Amino acid sequence: MDINSICVCGAGTMGRGIALSAARAGYFTLLFDLSPAALDKADSEIKKQLQEAVARKKMTAEQSRSTLEHLHYTSDLQTCLADIFIEAIVENTAAKANLFNQLAELNHSECIFASNTSSLPITEIAAAVNHPGRVIGLHFFNPADRMPLVEIVVGKQTNQATVDATAALARAIGKTPVFCQDSPGFIVNRVARPYYIEALRMVEEGADPAQIDRIMEASGFRMGPFRLMDLIGHDINYAVSASVYEQLGRPERLKPSPLQQQKVETGQLGRKSGQGFYNYDAPPGKP
Fold first, then answer.
1. pLDDT reported for residue 281
2. Which has the least CB within 10 A, 94, 103, 163, 263?
3. Looking at 181, 199, 220, which one is the last position of a domain?
4. What's the pLDDT tens digit per position in 62-85?
């Protein structure tokens, strides 16, 4: 199946990054969100990113204009017509399956339903969708428009045509796809759990987040665990930790941090809220 049009559902940080990647590659791209305010913010952020890219000579003004010409916005589900749908909505199996079922009623019989879930089982999402063979995981990493890696997660019922078309699309938009089993946390989030959880435990025992970050970055990591969690968002990071913990049978070594849970409950989500382990309304880098 050839993919010529893409609809990204959810205009948050991940959704707008995915949409930007697709539009920049020359695809007709529709960004859907029920919130007009979210769409307005996405439009503003994307235009800002493109302006900065032109200023830094990372792209030409013509490439920027072309990207914007390929990108469209809608808050009306009835107008969501595409060859592939990439959802980046709330991490809830029922919500994702319900969205896919609504979209299936509006679209042709070969369209693909790709989930950007960080850790929910693709097979469980597909089981609640009327066309499970066309459901697949397509997990981008933040910032989605710059990070080259994507995980392609094949569910038990995902058909080969869906796998092939999704992989071809990933490559066409400049990504490097890796295939993984439908297992807890897939590859990256499974392996990365100790990086976050052990760092959080050290802070619970009295260590300083900024000092841990400096040490890890000095040892070669691009970002320390606390800067990275602030970038990802503590709501997302904690939800992934909780999901992997439950799916693996609650091993003590992967028990989610109560400190991070507190961050989520108090709205200190990181960069997107202005406060996480660092204060982003203060001078740069101040904890």
1. 85
2. 94
3. 181
4. 999 999 999 999 999 999 999 999
What is the pLDDT confidence band of residue 284, given thresholds at 50, 70 and 90? Answer: low
Number of domains in the chain: 2
Let me know whether 58 and 13 are in one domain. Answer: yes
Q: Convert the pLDDT of each residue in 212-232 to its tens digit.
A: 999 999 999 999 999 999 999
Same domain, 133 and 19: yes
Does residue 268 sit within a domain? yes
Which residues form the domain of 210?
A: 189-273
CB–CB of 13/20 below 8 Å?
Answer: no
Give a yes or no: residue 174 inside a domain: yes
Res 285 pLDDT > 60 = no
Cα→Cα distances 98→48, 64, 73, 105, 233, Å: 33, 35, 21, 11, 25
Asked, for residue 278, whether it belongs to a domain, the answer is: no
* DSSP calls for 219-242: TT-SS-HHHHHHHH-HHHHHHHHH
Backbone angles phi, psi at 174, to 5 degrees: 85, 20
pLDDT of residue 1: 81
CB atoms within 10 A of CB 33: 23
Q: Are 151 and 219 found together in one domain?
A: no
Say how many Å lie between the first and final Cα of the chain, rounded.
49
Amino acid identity of 279? N
Catalytic annotation, residues: 118, 139, 151, 189
- Measured between alpha carbons, how far is 179 from 137 in angstroms, rounded to an integer? 10
Determine the Cα–Cα distance for residues 279 and 270; give it in Å rounded to an integer.
8
- Distance set, CA 84 to CA 74, 110, 131, 170 (Å): 16, 9, 13, 12
